[in-house]
Amino acid sequence: MKLFDVYPINPINIIKGQGSLVYDDKGTAYLDLYGGHAVISIGHTNPHYVKRLEDQLHQIGFYSNSIEIPLQKQLAEKLGRVSGKEDYQLFLCNSGAEANENALKLASFYNGKKKIIAFKKAFHGRTSLAVAATDNPKIVAPVNETDNVVFLPWNDEAALEQAFKEHEVSSVIIEGIQGVGGIQVTAVNFLQKIRSLCDEHNAVFIADSVQCGYGRTGKFFSHDFAGVNADIYSMAKGMGNGFPVGGIIISPKIAPSYGMLGTTFGGNHLACAAGLAVLEVIEQDNLMQNAAEIGDYLITELKKFDQVKEVRGRGLMIGIDLPEELSNVKKDLLFKHHIFTGEAKPNVIRLLPALNLTKTYADRFLEAFDATLNNA
Ligand code: PMP
C-alpha cells in the first residue's frame, strides 16, 4: 500500500531528538525551532516526560471513559492552577480540530444559535465545523457548513459590531495570535470588544489556543494579554509534547449546557500522563517566563535586521516577514545551517520552538540567520 500523498515532504529522516535538537539517520544534528509545528513544548525526549509515560505504560495504557480515571481529575486540577482558570471544566479529546469542533458544537447547545463569526486567514482545523471556520484557500470546507460562518477582517471593530447587528451570532472563534495565517497578533482592544459583544448578545467567545496557548507567549493563553476571559479555550499541540492530547476548558456559564460530547481515546491514561508531565515541567522549570524572556530577546534582535520587513509575535511564537526576493531563507537555514523553522505564506518564517529554548540556541539561530541573509 502507498501512503496517501498529502504533505510536502523534506527528504530528511529524523530518528532521534533531545531537548531542542533532533538528529537524522546520518547523525546530523538539527536545531529545532519548529517543534513539529508548536507541538514540542518541553523539548524532545524530556527525561521527566519519558519516565512518566514509561511508568504509566507499565501500569495501564488505556481502558475507557466508562470508568473513573483519577489522572483526568489530576490533569484538570493542575491545568486549572497553572492556567489560572480554576473554575472552568475540562473536556479531553485528541486534537486541535476536535477541540474546536466540540467548542463550536457546545456554543450551539448553549444558546441554540448557529452563526459563527471567524476571521480572514484563520485556521481552526480540518473537521466539518472547524474547517468551515477556516479561511485558507488550500483547506476548503465541505459544501454545507460554510453557510453558517461569517468571515470578518482581522482586528476590525466596526465590522465586528456590524456582524452582530446583522446575524444571530452563536459564537466568535479567534486565535490569540494567528499561526498558519502568518503570526498576526490579535489586538487587545479587539479581544475586549469581542468579550463585551458576546456578553451583550449571549454569544460564546471561543479562544483557539491550539497553537498560541500553553505558555508559548509567556502567558498561559495569549488571549490573557487582553485581561478578559473567553468562555471556551481550545487546546492541543503543546499539551502532550508529541502524544496526541487535546481539550477544551469551559467556563461555569457554559458548562451546564453539556451535551453529546464524547470520544473513545480522549483522556486515556497515557494521554493524561503526557499532559501532566508537560504541566509539571512547565511549572517546575518556569518555562512561561523563559518563553517570554528568550522570545523578547529574539524579537528585539530580529528587528535589527534591515532586510526584515516586520517581526511579529509574542514570546516563542514569532513571525519574520521577509521580502519576496528572500524566499530561499527557510531552505538555506535547513540545508546549510541545519535549523528547522516553519513558514506561512507569503514569505513569513515561523519560529515555534520548545519553551525551554536557551539563549545559546537563540544566538546560534541569529548568527545563521545573519549569514543566510547576507549570502542571499
Ligand atoms: N487551531 C489552530 C490555531 C491550529 O494552528 C491548528 C493546527 N495547525 C488547529 C487548530 C488544528 O489542530 P490539529 O491539527 O491538531 O487538528
From TrEMBL:
SUPFAM superfamilies in the record: PLP-dependent transferases (SSF53383)
Cofactor(s) needed for function: pyridoxal 5'-phosphate
Gene Ontology MF terms: identical protein binding; pyridoxal phosphate binding; transaminase activity
Pfam family, any one: Aminotran_3
Transferase keyword on record: yes
Keywords: Aminotransferase, Pyridoxal phosphate, Transferase
Family: Belongs to the class-III pyridoxal-phosphate-dependent aminotransferase family.
Entries under PANTHER family matching the protein: ACETYLORNITHINE AMINOTRANSFERASE, MITOCHONDRIAL, AMINOTRANSFERASE CLASS III
Identification of the protein by name: Aminotransferase class III-fold pyridoxal phosphate-dependent enzyme
Species lineage: Bacteria, Pseudomonadati, Bacteroidota, Sphingobacteriia, Sphingobacteriales
